[in-house]
Input
Amino acid sequence: MSRITHRTATPGEVAQILDWAAQEGWNPGFEDAPAFHAADPGGFFLAETGGRPVAAISVVNHDAHHAFLGLYICHPDYRGQGIGLGLWHHALKHAGNRGIGLDGVPAQEANYAASGFVLTDRTRRLTGQFAPQEPSLHLARPQDMAALARLDEAATGLRRGAFLHVWLGDSATRKTVVLREGPEVTGFATARRCGTGCKIGPVIAPDPDTALRLARQAAAALDETLAILDVPDSRAAFGALLRRGGFTESFATARMYRGPAPQGNGTLMAVATLELG
Output
């Protein structure tokens, strides 16, 4: 095998990494790559041998204090050779002194713990069908973006405006619905079409019942009924509502942090994406 080299991925290669994720069964959104890259253009990395990319990882710096690790993938033909681990150590340097989060499969918890990551929560992927309904909430407008960013920061403890500017953008495969109380936006949910169904996140709401309404309306805005939500255990009441509606768990991840974890206000009912937190 040729020497392994590491480098930063280009925007087009971020899209290729998400194609790999689709092949792994992760079911990314059709237009996730531009939002991922906008979050931190320098935060996506490849390992190459003989000029061929064989492994990928992201360490996205959301703000001055917090980063998030994801998209940790090695080509099946090159696993078990230390290539992924070498890329892991290379990419972690990008975070500097920031606290780093990740959503890892439980089988890898011990390995992540050995690298200093501590379990803080678990996230359950819940999949089910919403009954078709007429949209009754308004779509987000460009002039809402500042308010949505404030809600997101309060909910997540992260300042990630560059990511949200693209993630919340309106397109044929992506819709964000907002809840208004008078002139004030008090909640929102984003649905994005995937290879299978639509994923809904973030869902930011003052209570579980409102979160369920937002999720249903986000799916309706895309004219989708099959919905997938990643719900933290710390929002078990929202997960219970979904389960009563027939949603079932397909897998769980361990939310772990090395260094300080961001502190939200309890209104994040479903995460935006397991790859970026």
